[in-house]
């Protein structure tokens, strides 16, 4: 990893894949600001990881306040080198039962907030013509999964937006990439799969490596994309899925 200390923002950085990423960044001497809504969780994580980790309590649903958030971060910490758009929510519901409000809530949290935050961070990165933005997709954007229509729409758009952002921003020194996690062993996924044995069987049967991934697997991919080792990589969607997206 690079020797120079960089500054990263990880949304949803106090739990799950975001927490694994935060830990990996701190281990590699990257100063990391975690953003989330639960101050208790944020404070506990920051306290446990030491001086290289700090936090901001913020609801990314407050789109109009995001520009001010980034202004504050730059005033306090200087240039932002890395943005990881990890925060997101899901909803399991039959297509015909999804309300307009359900759909818009998922889209706003998982897509619109990513757009607004990336736009504001990119403005700051453009001033130094350097930086990297890493989005998080899902297997839901790689193939059809029932009962997650809103989530699928958002994550499919994230992949398209990643490519469009990369084409526009890369000539100006900003790389934009995306990681598409497969089925990862987190508390949330364990609860969902353990309560649905048939779904778990199907997941594992189409995963060539025949096991769930670990949060650290996603963190390693994000670390790579954030590093100078990926300095010629932009606009890609990397499935980290044990082969699930190509499994038969």
Describe the structure.
The protein is built from eight helices and seven strands. With 248 residues, it is an alpha/beta fold. The chain has one domain: Rossmann fold (3-Layer(aba) Sandwich). The chain has a seven-stranded parallel sheet, with helices on both faces. Strand 2, helix 2 and strand 3 (53-57) form a beta-alpha-beta unit. Helix 1 (16-27) crosses helix 8 (215-226) and helix 4 (100-126) packs parallel to helix 5 (149-169). It starts with 5 loop residues before the first strand and ends in an 8-residue tail after the last strand.
How would you concisely characterize the structure shown here?
By secondary structure, the protein is an alpha/beta fold. It is built from eight helices and seven strands; from the N terminus they run βαβαβαβαβαβαααβ. It is 45% helix and 16% strand.
Key terms:
Rossmann fold, 45% helix, alpha/beta
Shape: globular
Let me know the number of strands.
7
The percentage helix is 40-55%
CATH class: Alpha Beta
Uncertain segments are: none
CATH architectural category = 3-Layer(aba) Sandwich
CATH H-level name... which superfamily? NAD(P)-binding Rossmann-like Domain
In round numbers, the mean pLDDT is: 95
In what order do the strands lie side by side in the largest sheet?
3-2-1-4-5-6-7
Strand content: 15-25%
- The Cα radius of gyration reads 17 Å
What do we call the CATH topology? Answer: Rossmann fold
Keywords: Oxidoreductase
GO molecular function: oxidoreductase activity
Protein name: NAD(P)-dependent dehydrogenase (Short-subunit alcohol dehydrogenase family)
Family: Belongs to the short-chain dehydrogenases/reductases (SDR) family.
